[in-house]
Design brief:
It holds the Pfam family Cu_bind_like. The chain has helices at about 1-25, 45-50, 75-80, 115, 155-175, and strands at about 30, 55, 60, 70-75, 90, 95-100, 105-110, 120-125, 130-135, 140, 150. It is α+β, with helices and mostly antiparallel strands.
Length: about 180
């Protein structure tokens, strides 16, 4: 009886983990600027051209916290004129992960006026999550093909594999 309870507990963990993994498959992790990151020499406009940002995605800024920061502004006018006098948020820790949790446009720029004037700024137009309709008319999110090479795959898949291996090891020990 004890083995059966243990086996059922392991199966519940695996089912929950599999469900969590499926929910995260549609997420795309966008590393702003690709390999170069958030720095004045990066052509952020070229990096973002053609890129689609969706609700549920994450964007990552990597920068030297001692030399730069990221400011979120409230309007396109502030972004275009590099008016940094009224920021919505200031991020300065060097590795920044932001959840794109709502539709609409968000505006980011360097906290240094010189870098902003040289083009280190980004507008992110967040689209609704992509959906497909199944035969029973339930709406299910899905990922539309592979993500660009500068995107980081979700970590949930590796967690799921780890949990499967752990469950198999525990089964081998206790069964």
């Amino acid at each position: 009886m004890r083995r059966r309870s243990f086996f059922m507990a392991v199966m519940v963990v695996l089912v929950i983990s599999a469900d969590q993994g499926r929910r995260c498959e549609a997420q795309v992790h966008h590393v702003v600027g690709g390999d170069r990151g958030w720095e004045p020499a990066t052509d952020v406009g070229e990096w973002s051209a053609g890129r689609v940002f969706r609700v549920g995605d994450k964007i990552w800024f990597t920068f030297s916290g001692a030399l730069d920061n990221v400011i979120e502004l409230g309007s396109r006018e502030e972004l275009e004129s590099c008016d940094l006098s009224n920021p919505i948020r200031l991020y300065s820790d060097g590795l920044l992960q932001l959840d794109l949790d709502r539709e609409g446009v968000r505006y980011f720029t360097s906290g240094g006026p010189e870098s902003c004037n040289k083009g280190l700024k980004l507008d992110v137009n967040v689209q609704p999550p992509e959906e497909i309709k199944e035969r029973n008319n339930n709406i299910v999110p899905f990922a539309a093909g592979p993500t660009p090479s500068t995107s980081v795959p979700p970590l949930k898949a590796t967690h799921f594999i780890f949990l499967i291996l752990l469950a198999l090891a525990l089964l081998a020990i206790f069964v």
